[in-house]
Amino acid sequence: MARLPRLIVPHQPHHVIQTGNNEQPVFHDDDDYLAFLGWLRAAAKTYKVQVHAYVLMPNHLHLLVTPTDEDGLGQMMQWVGRYYVPYFNHKYGRSGTLWNGRYKTSLIDADAYFMLCSRYIESNPVRSGLAARHEDYRWSSYCHHAGIRPDGLIIDHPKFWELGNTPFEREAAYVALFELAITSDDITRIGNALLKGWPLGSEQFKAALQNRVKRRVLPAKRGRPFKIKQESV
After folding, report:
1. Within a 10 A sphere around the Cβ of 190, how many other Cβ atoms?
2. Phi/psi at 221 (nearest 5 deg)?
3. From residue 76, how far is each of 69, 80, 125, 146, 199 by CA, in Å?
4. Average pLDDT of 40-65?
5. In what order do the strands lie in the sheet with 60-67?
6. What's the alpha-carbon Rg for the chain, to the nearest Å?
7. Per DSSP, what are the bridge partners of residue 217?
8. Rounded distance between C-alpha atoms, residue 174 and residue 168, angstroms
């Protein structure tokens, strides 16, 4: 099924993934991770994109972000690539593309899926066998949310603040969420939405979104042309 054109809606959270070309590594050592994060922090500030959660894996990365306009997210990703790819190619004596095409993104219904997506992102190293515990993996935002190590890249989302009235309460509640396993259905749902560019949310959220942006946001059913619901005047 064809992927829909990328949908970016200001002030809404988006789950982003970017993968290495042919699944090749895009980070080899600590300096690579640090360089990427430094450029990401600068680009996020420049283009006014809030980064709520992230994980850098050896051959791909996930971000949970909120752009303030329609162009900022794309500009941020392009800016980081403009600096990181030449750095990586020069360091490792290679040339050509580093990424497997453009980044992919899924717009998130914050009420229903924000915290699940944050857990999905930050638990990636444990699910993949790269770490025994979430706090053991250095290149994610888990330690920030768990109160172990502050991360200047992260701007906490209101959904994180709803976890408690004090930093300790929020951090403890967040850590407790990781004691709950993410179901295979949730993993499939998140993955499909992300890779195919679908919004992730309730049916009511998707219908409201489709009417708001005046374009199709989900694959059309066979034999039925897409129509925008007309609002009464």
Report:
1. 20
2. -75, 145
3. 12, 6, 24, 27, 21
4. 98
5. 49-57, 60-67, 14-19, 104-107
6. 18
7. none
8. 10
pLDDT of residue 3: 53
Give pTM, 2 decimals.
Answer: 0.90
| pLDDT bucket at 202, cuts 50 / 70 / 90 | confident
Helix, strand, or coil here: 56? strand
Going by C-alpha positions, the residue among 109, 125, 114, 115 that lies closest to residue 176 is 115
State which amino acid sits at residue 42: A
Q: Is 155 helix (H, G, I), strand (E, B) or coil?
A: coil
Residue 183: DSSP 8-state: P
Of residues 220, 210, 195, the one with CA closest to residue 9: 210
CA distance readout (Å), 67 to 91, 190, 211: 31, 20, 20
pLDDT of residue 203: 84
Helix H or strand E encompassing 131: none
Find the largest Cα–Cα distance for the chain. Answer: 62
